[in-house]
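Q: Got a minute? One more chain.
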Amino acid sequence: EEFVVIGAHLDSWELGQGALDNGCNVALVIDLARQIKRLGLKPLRTIRFALFNGEEQGLIGSWGYCKTHADELDRTVMASSYDIGTGRITGFFTGGRPELAAATSKALEPVAGLGPFTQIDVPIVGTDNFDFMMEGVGNLVANQESANYGPNYHAGSDTFDKVDLKQLRLNAAIAAAVTYGFATMEVNWKRQIRAEIEALMNATDLAAQMKSFNVWNDWENGKRGRQK
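A: Always. Here it is, folded:
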């Protein structure tokens, strides 16, 4: 059995309602599960819908998932995170893995009319893809237009009236295409070993990002990430 994970974080800062960060994407994940069940779709891989807690306190929920499901990570084809409000999805960050960029573009073909889409093949730190990436699992983060998200980020103005419901529905269609695409396509990649993750660090600014988000020490002392 193989797995595809789609996730969003439940928690938010108490300044506002947390509608953009990240209630809207929690709703997206829940509705995607509901619609796949309603349609009776039977993908080749198990799709796991995950709502993570403690993201704002250090990506704790997704870290806990990776520890709890450590025996499944070799068989986890892709884990995705949605965490930038209701701005239009313009593509995905694909973690410095060209094979994922190509696969994502293929998965998006059924919703090409909602594009254009551009994959950005660099690793990023700051949301719930992180621990999957450090465990060598293929990971995606939705890249979204931030005009509405940025001014309301971690602010009292992050309220339900800021949610673009029409765009949220369109984003759900995009997320569905990516999730179902990865759950049905043939794949030619495997989980990375630690040496490959270290090579990614050497080739990118991943280490600097980790230090900025205060997660470097957890990697360095062996608390997080793949150990071999």
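A: The chain is about 40% helix and 15% strand.
Q: Perfect, thanks.
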